[in-house]
Amino acid sequence: MLNFPLTRRAFVAGTAATALALAGCSVEQPIEPGPAPADPADDNTPTEPVAAQSGVARTLTAAVAYEGSDPNPIGTSSGVFLAAGWHVFEGLYELNMHTYRAECGLAADAPIQIDDLEYEVTLREDTVFSDGSPLTSADVVNAFERNGESDLYGAFLSFITAVSAPDERTVRFKLNAPMGSVLQERLALVRVFPATLTDEELASKPVGSGPWCYETINAADGGRISFTANHRYTGPWPATCERMEWSVLLDDTRRTDELIDKDVMVMVMEAAPVVRAEELADAGATVEWVPGFNLPFLMFNCEKPPFDDVRVRQALLYAIDVDSLIGTYMAGHARAATSLLPDYFRHYHRAATVYSYDPEKARKLLAEAGVDELALTLRANDNWVSTLAPAIAEDWKAVGVTAEVVLLDTTALFADLSTEPEPGTLLPFDVVLSPGDPSCFGNDADLIISWWYGDNVWTRARSRWATTPAFAEVAELLAEARSKTSEDEQQPLWNQCFDIIAAEVPLYPLFHRETATAWWTAQLDDYDPISATGLNFLGTTPMRDADPI
User: Fold this and answer.
1) % of the chain surpassing 70 pLDDT
2) Strand partners, 515
3) Which of 251, 359, 410, 451 has the highest CB neighbour count under 10 A?
4) Dihedral sign for Cα atoms in the order 154, 160, 162, 164
């Protein structure tokens, strides 16, 4: 087994060490869990407080930037409940959101290879859920089977053909491809819960084996999610205080005011707005920008003329002054896309086609496509990308394209773009501008490519790219890469995918932005922000009697 220290600060996207860490589990020193209650509880509420430590606060408080309606961990894509799930549930392996290394969670060690397409994972001993019930391999099998049936995670887990439990501490996987360097990362996607939980229980207050338990859940805007420490937790990241309170505040101004207001005493806020970063710093808060994958993308209706012509799609990207967008609206905290991945991700490959600002080339491509005086509708999400839409429309106007901008919330934006249309009918859109960040699931090339360009809702019911020969070519390349056992063999195949995607641009990033987090340094010991959507407090201790100013 390879041993790597559990550091709290490392460069976000991974280096050569990231790939090495996949061969084993990362454990430094065993950490003593909080005391277990003498008698089993009937629910998942701890019955004894976390052992008191000098200077440690009772509650860790935070303001989060995304709302949600369903804490069910099966197939979740909710930003707020993905982050909450890192604290409440465990997977066989845990994706360290600071390093993107796969570390041991419920698994005692790395998967043991039985043959080319069969692996076994042994669970760590004496693990129980927060309600006191034992965690067995049957619970793990149930979690994988139910996630495999979900619309979202099913595609990510399609390499698993069968999962079984030879005994209470062993899980056996049969695969259709070895997955090479990304096997443990993909197994980390599934969060484990008691197999006895009903759908109603999973949707109301699900139980896990992580260091925290849900107490109350109201993740609507203005609501609050409360957690209590799980004293039955036996992993390496026990709760460091008695409670956590997350305020759900979508509005940037309200979230910032909560942090600055000493009477409210929020210790950390997600998604600090660029326009108030200086104010936060002047108040004494730390504001840190972490390079990540988060991006605004343009998605085209690849079945609707003239966007079915790749030259038109390319022209609309060449016409955008991305550097100006970054300087004006991101205060420089972003990097123009030179591929699907940013250049600091470990599987990065500079695409053969890079969309630098070139209005003349845009006009030429439109002329070659026979397009003159093009008028289109740009559907834009009404969140942070909405500020980009007018500038994009102005850039397009300069090359003879008129764009009407329509702002919609996320639900309305995709409401009529989530079902595959009947043959002979077209989806009712031209171009969509929206943000995206699948790196909260992982940052390997297979996952990122599969998210937007796999056989799923994005290609079949949104971009409509699934009907093209290029889509079939990417699918074949991805399947071939999964059949390889080493990253050296996988990378050239992924590189071909990046080149095809950059040339075809059914959906493509404009830039990759840095994620801004603000917090009171004196109030949070051993806290480091992450690059993906969400807040992660594993290993972080809140400090009492600390002056935030």
Assistant:
1) 89
2) 290
3) 451
4) negative
